[in-house]
Design a protein that fits this description.
- By secondary structure, the protein is α/β, with parallel strands linked by helices.
- The chain is 33% helix and 23% strand.
- The protein has a seven-stranded parallel beta sheet with strand order 3-2-1-4-5-7-6, sandwiched between helices. Strands 9-10-8-11-14-13-12 form a seven-stranded mixed beta sheet.
- The longest helix is centred in the middle third of the chain and has 15 residues.
- Bound molecules: NADPH dihydro-nicotinamide-adenine-dinucleotide phosphate and N-acetyl-L-glutamyl 5-phosphate (X2W).
- Catalyzes the NADPH-dependent reduction of N-acetyl-5-glutamyl phosphate to yield N-acetyl-L-glutamate 5-semialdehyde.
Length: 335
């Protein structure tokens, strides 16, 4: 059986990456795509990279019709707008992978504090599986709705969670310093992502108030089983894609070698997580679904470095990995 996939929000960057990955997937096919602005065109007209390879028409969103055509829908909308659409799609009986942050957190109070809006479907906050198959594959397999992880959180949770779970580092002294390519900000026009703003420049943003800070802390706590506090600072860098996170932790009588050993044991059966001896760079994982991470002793700290591609393991590759789990395929199929 071929898995029939639909994309909502087909004009964006993550949608393009889903379509690109589906072209190489042996068990799944893109059958429908929707957009508010580009109804009546085709996905190849909007994304010329796909010309001659993918001629799916773009239609306006009708949840009932999409549910009839699809086994799973990739909902590639911004947070806020996404929850409402996910609710309608799930009500129509189709399985949904939500790319936004709307269902990732454990509780409504934290969501409304950090996102500044009322949640349209609060019953599903805290009862939607977080789409990180490295830890939640069993729940993902059964799910009607999967909350695909945030890009920065993926780069921090994978290195940190096993170290907290095994009590190898101090839980209240963690600094996550991340750099992202500009595609992380999406395709819609914003002054902050104009060429002259980002070219030849690196800037911090969201200092002390970025909404991925509670997501990282929440998930590391849930997986690690103890309360943590962390400080997260993102930076925008003049690259198309990629995230590099440098994470400063305080060891509890261990060295970097024990961190590497812990990761290798934890992720022995996780095909996309690689503890590597070299210091990872975004180029090492570009266009792939891999996470590379490494650890170094540095005075009274250990420094962890992780690299992912924000559009692949940070979004669309992770969604395909989740889809594979939901439909009983190997996690690596098509990736
Ligand atoms: N870019 C990345 O690296 C990552 C993105 N994500 C998340 O994935 C989702 C998609 O991201 P990305 O593809 O980059 O975003 P884009 O901005 O590139 O695309 C989002 C699409 O959603 C549609 N849209 C925008 N606003 C609304 C709205 N108010 N109501 C309905 N539809 C709307 C637009 O399509 P149209 O106007 O044609 O309808 C747009 O093309 C977001 O939630 C993002 O936060 C998660 C991890 C990484
Ligand atoms: C570079 C850049 O702007 N990155 C985005 C995060 C990427 C993302 O899409 O996060 P969500 O899925 O949680 O929305 C940001 O900082 O908001």
């Amino acid at each position: 059986m071929t898995i029939r996939v639909g994309i909502v929000g087909a004009t964006g960057y993550t949608a393009l990456e889903v379509a690109r990955l589906l072209l190489a997937h042996p068990e799944a096919e893109l059958v429908a795509a929707t957009s508010r602005a580009e109804e009546g065109t085709s996905i190849a007209e909007i994304h010329p990279e796909l010309a001659g390879r993918c001629e799916v028409a773009i239609e306006s969103l009708d949840p009932a019709s999409l549910a009839k055509k699809c086994d799973v829908v990739m909902c590639c909308l911004p947070h806020g707008a996404s929850a409402e659409t996910c609710k309608e799609l799930v009500a129509e009986g189709v399985r949904v992978i939500d790319f936004s942050a709307d269902f990732r957190l454990s509780d409504q109070v934290t969501y409304e504090k950090w996102y500044g809006v009322e949640h349209p479907w609060p019953e599903r906050i805290g009862s939607t599986v977080y789409g990180l198959p490295e830890f939640f594959a069993e729940q993902i397999r059964q799910a009607d709705l999967v909350a695909n992880p945030g890009c920065y959180p993926t780069s921090a949770i994978l290195p940190l969670a096993p170290l907290i779970a095994n009590q190898l580092i101090e839980a209240t002294d963690i600094i996550v310093d991340s750099k992202s390519g500009v595609s992380g900000a999406g395709r819609s026009a914003k002054v902050a992502t104009l060429y002259c703003e980002v070219n030849e420049s690196i800037a911090a943003y969201g200092v002390g108030c970025h909404r991925h800070q509670p997501e990282m802390a929440d998930l590391v706590q849930r997986i690690g089983g103890q309360e943590i506090s962390l400080l997260f600072t993102p930076h925008l860098t003049p690259m198309d894609r990629g995230i590099l996170s440098t994470i400063y932790v305080r060891p509890r009588n261990i060295h970097a070698a024990e961190v590497m050993a812990c990761w290798r044991k934890q992720y022995a059966d996780s095909p996309f997580v690689n503890a590597v001896d070299h210091l990872p760079a975004t180029k090492h994982v570009s266009g792939t679904n891999y996470v590379q991470m490494s650890a170094r002793d540095a005075g009274d700290r250990i420094v962890l470095v992780s690299a992912i591609d924000n559009l692949t393991k940070g979004a669309s590759g992770a969604a395909i990995q989740n889809m594979n789990v939901m439909f009983g395929l190997e996690q690596t199929t098509g990736l």
